[in-house]
Amino acid sequence: MKGKVYIRGCAAISPQESFSGSFVPQPPTLADDNILRAKEPDYKAFIAPNNLRRMSRMLKMGLTAALQCLQNAGITVPDAIITGTGKGSLQDTERFLHDIRQYAEAALNPTPFIQSTYNSVNGLIALQQQCTRYNNTFVHRGFSFEHAVLDGLMLLREGNAANVLAGGFDEITKEHFYIKSRIGYWKTALTQPADLFSSNTPGALAGEGAVFFVLGAAPAAVSLEGIKMMYKPSQESLGQALETFLSQHQLTPADIDLLITGQSGDSNHDHWYQFVQQKYFPDTIATPFKHLCGEYDTAGAFALWMAVQRMQEEERLKHVLIYNQFYGEQHTLMLLGR
Amino acid sequence: MEALKLKLKQQIIEALNLQDTRPEDIDDNAPLFGEGLGLDSIDSLELMVLLERQYQIKVEDPREGRKILQSVQTMAEFIKSKQAA
């Protein structure tokens, strides 16, 4: 294994004022549904009007976040473009499916079909930056972004890339919100993000976002030390994996300066965080993030972005651990250092 | 014919999401591809779909499509000829 991997740049479009560069965590106020919607920037500054007209919302968000991230890192053509998405462009998928029904499987418009494929954002980034190198998209529900990160880490550590653009993106639509509400994903009563952790009710608040990172070997303020994924672990195996993960980095829970948890206010699944905090981090400062961005497959990308912001602002933070899980199935640990 | 061309321009703007373009900005005889509106191959597929959805006209031969989609004028003439047949 070669040297450390650093986070050389990042950019986020989220329900926060995250894209402008002046991030102050602020739970949004919801008007009439449990959806935290992304604050979208002016895309015209990033995408030519002739290209912009054809792109759906997710594509615009993904491409713009990726371009801003590359710009922040001072890189034009990365050695690899790797993304994770749970759903891809839902708007295009829904439009295409509606058209199939409305036009009886005939006279189908090609654009939403092309853009509904999960790797559309990757393709657009590659086209825009004239990048013909490694290009991969992972679609593994709550592990999607994390697999993109893992792939990037492996490329860098094996010496097959000097820098990697890795990101996660997902959007929420009214229709998808309704479908997932049928299987209890969301809270039924309108719940304000500020009251999320005292709600004690089943379900989460829906969210969305596009977050990108440039990972590389060149030193920067924050390093990505490692990532560990577990599918449907027991509490015992999660605890063992956590201990092993930290010891592999010559750390114990007491060495963690900040714990970022994926607590979502969901009474069905938040016990995982209570277990980890009470057993391993009783005296560690802990902060949630899903009252800021909502719950979605690639919300872990927002957590990583938030961790980088905190570490850039606070020198005292030497080791930050992110623990996130998606509806009790996909559990992830991400460790950041200096 | 004039009413058809105006309607066609409105439909093209909507189907292709031509932001900041108004029907009066599109010259009847200006080429739709390359110069003029600067459309591309994906747009040509979208215009074929437009003809099928809005006018129930299916263009079977791609070589025929190239002639039909030259301009708003050629599209309107093609629609008229099909409707008269």
From TrEMBL, chain B:
Transmembrane segments: none
Record domain Carrier: where: 2-83
Pfam family, one: PP-binding
UniProt superkingdom: Bacteria
InterPro entries associated with the record: ACP-like_sf, PP-bd_ACP
NCBIfam families: PRK09184.1 (NF006617)
The protein's name in its UniProt record: Acyl carrier protein
